[in-house]
Every structure is written in C-alpha cells, then in structure tokens.
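Bench notes, bay 3.
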Amino acid sequence: MENGSKIVVSLLLLLLLLPLLSTTISAQTTSLAPNFYSTTCPNVESIVQSAVRQKFQQTFVTAPATLRLFFHDCFVRGCDASILLASANGKAEKDHPDDVSLAGDGFDTVIQAKAAVDSNPQCRNKVSCADILALATREVVQLTGGPFYTVELGRRDGRISTIASVQRQLPQPSFNLDQLNTMFARHGLSQTDMIALSGAHTLGFAHCAKFSKRIYNFSPRSRVDPTLNFQYAMQLRQMCPINVDPRIAINMDPNTPRTFDNVYYKNLQQGMGLFTSDQVLFTDLRSRNTVNLFASRNTAFNQAFVAAVTKLGRVGVLTGNQGEIRRDCTRPN
C-alpha cells in the first residue's frame, strides 16, 4: 500500500508539472533564432539584402531612415512592426508627433523588401514585416561601413498600433543621463547599450526645432548652451535662423554623416553633440569613460553596438502563435 501511495503521489505531481513543462517547451521552440526560416524561406537574407541595396542606391536616406524606424518600432509595443501600420483616422503610432519626422524612405525600404520576399513562391506570406525590418536594419548598417552581425529571426507582426501607445516611450532630445538610463532600462538595456545605440546618430539628420533652444535661448544667463562648442553653435545658427523653415534638417554628425563610425563620440569630446541627450553622454562623468572608449576604438564601439542592437531586437517580440504574418505591412490581415 505504501508503494502504491507513492506511485499515486508521483503521478499527481507529474500531472501538475505537465502544464509548466509544456509552457517551457513552447517558450523554447518559439524563441528567436538566426536559422528560423531555414526550411520555409532559406534565401530570405539574400532577398532582403538585394532589395535594401537597390533602395540604398536610389537614396542614402534609406540608411538612417531604416535604422531609426527599427528603434522607434522596438521601443513602442516591442519589435512587432506596429510602426508600419497605417490608420485612416490618423491615430496610429506613425501619426504621433515623435514619429511624424520618420523619413518615408524607411517605410518604403521595408515595403519593397517585403514585396521581394513575397515574390518568391516558397516565401510568400511566411516572413514577418518585423523580421524584414530587423534584417533591413542590419543591411543599412553594413552598407554605410558599420559591422555585419547575425540577426535573430522569428518575430511575428502585431495587429495593434495606437497613437496613445507612443506617449512617453521614446527618448527626447532634452533628456539627461538619468532619464535616458531609466527609459532604456525599462527594456532591459544597460547604460553601455544606451550609449552604443546613441551612436546610431553617426547617421541621419534632425530638424532645427529639435535643438534650437540650445543655440538661441538656452537660459537667462546664457543664450547658447555652455556645453555646446561655441563655434559649432554659430555654424548651427547660420543653418537654422530663428524663423527657419521647419523642414530644414541638419546632419547629426557634421564630419562623417554618411559613414557608420565612431566619429559621433569624437564629436561629443569636442562639444559637438547636436542634442542635449547626445552631449550629456560626455558631460556626465558617469558615462564619459564609455564615450572616450568608443571614441578611441572603433572596434569597441562596433562590438558594443552589435550587442546592444541584438538585445534591442528582442524587446517585446511576438513569437509562436502570437500576432500574425502580415500580407501587407501597412495593415493587419
């Protein structure tokens, strides 16, 4: 009887553990993996690469626009391509003031790459827009001189995109180090990750309104932000007069704006960070050593960026039976 009781107890424990075991197995089988499409769409990386390179040859803006699109997508609702969804009433993520400046070339890059993937009968409707955006981001980084890195795949596309979900989810040009760290930590990203991802500002541009206060009306004591290189501030004034056309855009990196390199950090050492949130990485002693490291060693920056962008690509992903594979990246199925 004693042995029989032990058997019964063991069976009961096994029955209790089965749901937990199945959940663990499910989590393992739906995790991201570089070879996720090895049987369903084995040529997905080369197809996306070709489409992105074709778009890049048409316009350089493809690079910074795609890179920024990936960041904005992952920081709001996770990397689920919700940033690509359009809304007839202007209430989608892309319609939020923090997103309206996203260049159309980034959206177009993903749409063209998706069309190229789906033109392959083996791949049609099998690759998510979220994964295509992740792959396209890697391509533009490499095309501009940055590192090649392995992209984890297996994301599914979200069905929801609301303007309200963007509120207080994206870093602002005026942020200090504590605000930056808090926002990035919310997504499992460290201060080093944040500094490395900020290095993406080595590409791209910003509109004058985003930094005009630093060069015209910083404080009652100083019209120019004292952390800003004065000569650089005067150059910015020439490019951004007080009554400037809001469509005027300035390179984030005034020295090598078309190259993914560590010059961004060298600029910070010279007081030439365009945003307060850029320059604070050097002026704050808690982050200065990392800036100095990346400025002195491009390989250190590249390695840190690869680690950070890989972690970024895991934020809030939908996998397995979650979400869907959108047939049209701009709307749910």
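Next record in the batch:
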Amino acid sequence: MQKFPMTAEGLVRLEEELKVLKSEERPAIIRAIAEARAHGDLSENAEYHAARERQSFIEGRIGELESIIPSVEVIDVARLSGNKVLFGAHVTIVDEESEDEKTYRIIGQYEADMKNGSISVTSPLAKALMGRKIGDSVEVPAPGGARSVEITAVRFT
C-alpha cells in the first residue's frame, strides 16, 4: 500500500471532512431525494436530479477519503529544523530574473492549497527545492520554460 506524507493538521482536516460528510451531508441528501421523489414524475424533476448529482459527489468523496486516510503517514514537522528544504518547510524563494519573492509551505498532495501558499511535495517546484539549502540557486521547470530561483529562507514553524 502506498503511503502519503501529510502533516497532523492535514489529517485532522480530512478526518473532520469525512465525519461531516457521513453524519450531516449524507443524511441531508437522502432527505432531499425523498422529498423530491414525493413531487411525482422523476424524469422532469430538477430537484431530484440535482439531489442525485449531489449524492453522487458526496459518496465519491467519502470513498476517496476512506481510501486516503488509512494510507496517510503523518510527518511531525515540529521535530524538524535546519536550513535544508524538507517536507513541512516554509520556503522563501526569489525569482532570479524578476526578483519576485514568494513563500510556500511544502506539504502532502491531499492537503496542498496554492491559494493559501502551500504546495504539494509532488509538485515540480517542491521536487526541485527538496534537499536544497538556503543560498542555493535552483532551476524549476515551468510552462513558459525553466526559471531560476534562489532559496532565501527555510523555516519549520
């Protein structure tokens, strides 16, 4: 069985999502389907079809979470330190061409959220940064061609 690295916080979020889906969302959608059925002809009942679509999404997500959670390997980021990029690190990089500075946290693929500044350990950027140190210049593959970035900071808090 393949293991997926994840922070403890990420695992808690997935477990909470699964709990809500099973205890709140699933019963609510079952009630909505029953109510829509009571309205008669199902072939032209938009409420029924929307509820069935929602049910399909919920059941699919429950199945996905039930397969991911047992395969999670929690990495205790609090025990990590140093100037080397590892799983769980907050990494500040500067684009050597544009001088743009960005900070990302490298975390598991099922908890990453680019909008919140976290990237998956399996992303091209994270793969290029892993194992490197502060001051290293790293070439990162990008859609418009490779970009060079310099690692300016690494922290684990």
